[in-house]
Design goal:
Rossmann fold, Elongation Factor Tu (Ef-tu), domain 3, 13 helices, elongated
Length: 606
């Protein structure tokens, strides 16, 4: 078969350290003539010069650190082919210290080999790796019981390992699993059936490889593309804004109507762009592409793009996950981490630990709340703002995430479920507003040029009776006197008995109920959207704003920006304001500081 016509498949091979993964791969390369000419002889001669016994693993372990320590520390890629397919075999580390490297390799695989030493038997890492493979959604698995020569090719030993490990995998819903007894060093059952094991008449490693089913390209699945970047060209009057990214699933055509999440903004594809070539009529999964839109909406890195009329992704900032923790320090409640989903990065915190699972035996501890290194857990996360993603049963690749702590990957997993929060319905309304909003012919740039400032929401918050409205009104006066299109709105947390919510400055009556407060925030979001579409600076005083309320408002007014100011020394909510003003006695002075900040950040043009 012509090599260009062959399909390609990614296979990961993993297992406990020293169980012989690299030896198995090295033997496969040697027995099929896949090595560069003279490579095998060169490695054997090098072993003779250094008085070291030759091992087939040396064909793979090219890194000096790996040869010196005798362990694989990265997911090495090996290109290999049979008559039927071209393969990329990922040799993933088995040592517990390099589990995150193993996950990196396995996440790109369509099928897996897991190696178990027949002499040592099933180890904890053998089970950890099995759990990780199941969590990553790999369903095609073959367990290679290696080093059968060390147990005199015992059929009984092989069957014991097969029965024991099959029971473990069954608890992970992995039932369609193959087992093959092999000896990587001696070549038994690698490329041909072994004379040392006449009791084994089924697959060899090579024949099983070709029996793995190739994953179909997900062209029939809902369209998904994570925005990698937005490119703008200004030379020779080129005004295009090209949205760029790699298509994860589905297909993209000219005139397709798209929705950008989490904002819910929509536009149509005006053109598909390629570098130095003719634009194609359609692009599909795995293709890095760019496109322009008929309506220039605000899009940015991290947005998830879907098609109108297809299954839509999830949006939320509270969700349940299955997690594997790799950090040196335990996962801490209340600490900020960075969550990466697709191309999006957002601050997150652990809200709750539902259960911690021992990956080596699948025992769950519902009382344990600390997630330590190499623990598996079910947790609930909260993010600073809403993000877009898919659930694992819908689109596995779009449900995967990693957690970064101090610039290092500390964990990873899959999103299982969106947890409804108190502002979910209002967040949905804000998305619907962006989805259905139609703008006029006056651009934001034209408004900035005419007014001398950008649209901006300034939310002044703090405890009751600290002078929020006084400072906000003073800021409104200062901005108006310099010619800004500015509006002030005072919002109270109190309500007259039997009356509708008072939007003035009254502090009489009862405190608002939770649903009344939610409705107040919802109305503020709508009013802010309308004001800022007209280019206004809106100054709002609002008591004890929370981060959740801020996120709902931010989603509604996107792409317009917002600044939060907290007045007072004590932060009484979970809000992390952009500015905190300690001195509450001089409203005019503090308003002048906020005005200066707006000038410094070029909201107000000098």
């Amino acid at each position: 078969m012509n090599s260009e016509m062959k399909e390609q498949m990614n296979i990961v091979i993993t297992g406990h350290v020293d169980h012989g993964k690299s030896t198995v791969i090295g033997r496969m390369l040697a027995d099929t003539g896949s090595l560069p000419e003279g490579k095998l002889e060169s490695v054997k001669k090098n072993c003779e010069r250094n008085s070291k016994p030759f091992e087939y693993a040396f064909l793979l372990d090219a890194l000096k650190d790996e040869q010196a320590q005798g362990i694989t520390i990265d997911a090495a890629r090996v290109f290999f082919n049979t008559e039927q397919r071209d393969y990329i075999i990922l040799d993933a580390p088995g040592h517990i210290e390099f589990l995150k490297n193993m996950v990196t390799g396995a996440a790109r695989a369509e099928a897996a080999f897991l190696v178990i030493d027949a002499d040592e038997g099933i180890q904890e890492n053998s089970k950890r790796h099995g759990y990780l493979l199941s969590m990553l959604g790999i369903r095609q698995l073959c367990v290679l019981v290696n080093k059968m020569d060390l147990v005199d090719y015992s059929q009984r030993t092989f069957r014991q390992i097969e029965r024991k490990y099959s029971r473990f995998l069954k608890n992970l819903d992995m039932t369609d699993v193959s087992f093959i007894p092999v000896s990587g060093r001696e070549g038994d059952n690698i490329a041909s059936l072994s004379k040392n094991m006449p009791w084994w008449t089924s697959n060899t490693v090579l024949s099983l490889l070709d029996s793995f089913k190739k994953e179909e390209k997900p062209t029939d699945m809902p369209f998904r593309m994570a925005v990698q970047d937005v490119y703008k060209f200004t030379n020779e009057g080129d005004s295009r804004r090209i949205i760029a990214g790699t298509i994860d699933s589905g297909e993209l055509h000219k005139d397709d109507e798209l929705i950008f999440y989490p904002s819910g903004k929509k536009s149509k594809v005006d053109s598909i762009e390629v570098f130095n070539g003719e634009p194609p009529e359609v692009v599909g999964p795995g293709q890095a592409t760019g496109f322009t839109m008929t309506e220039q909406i605000y899009a940015k890195r991290g947005n998830l793009v879907a098609k109108v009329g297809e299954k839509q992704p999830q949006v939320g900032n509270v969700f349940r996950v299955s997690l594997f923790w790799l950090g040196k320090k335990p996962l801490e409640k209340g600490k900020d981490y960075i969550l990466k989903v697709g191309t999006d990065r957002v601050k997150m915190q652990l809200f709750d630990t539902i259960r911690v699972i021992d990956a080596s035996n699948l025992n769950a501890d519902n009382m344990k709340k600390m997630v330590g290194r190499h623990d598996v857990a079910e947790c609930v996360f909260t993010t600073k703002r809403a993000i877009a993603f898919d659930l694992v049963e819908d689109l596995p690749s779009a449900s995967r995430f990693v957690i970064v702590d101090d610039y290092e990957i500390a964990g990873g997993g899959i999103i299982r479920e969106v947890v409804k929060d108190s502002m979910a319905s209002h967040r949905k309304d804000a998305m619907h507003l962006n989805f259905s909003w139609e703008t006029g012919n006056v651009s934001a740039a034209e408004r900035v040029k005419a007014l001398g400032h950008k649209s901006q929401l300034v939310l002044v918050s703090g405890e009751e009776a600290v002078g929020k409205s006084e400072m906000s009104k003073a800021l409104e006066r200062r901005l108006f006197d310099r010619g800004c299109n500015v509006v002030y709105l005072g919002m109270t947390s109190f309500q007259e008995d039997g009356e509708e919510a008072d939007y003035g400055d009254s502090r009489r009556g009862r405190r608002m109920a939770a649903h009344e407060r939610e409705e107040m925030i919802h109305r503020l979001a709508l009013f802010a959207k309308m004001s800022m579409e007209g280019g206004a600076i809106l100054v709002v005083s609002c008591s004890e704003l929370t981060s959740e309320e801020r996120e709902v408002i931010a989603m509604a007014i996107e792409p317009h920006s917002m600044k939060t100011v907290w007045l007072g020394k004590d932060l009484t909510t979970d809000l992390k304001p952009d500015y905190q003003i300690m001195n509450v006695s001089e409203a005019v002075t503090e308003a002048e500081k906020i005005e200066a900040l707006l000038v410094d950040e070029e909201i107000i043009l000098k």
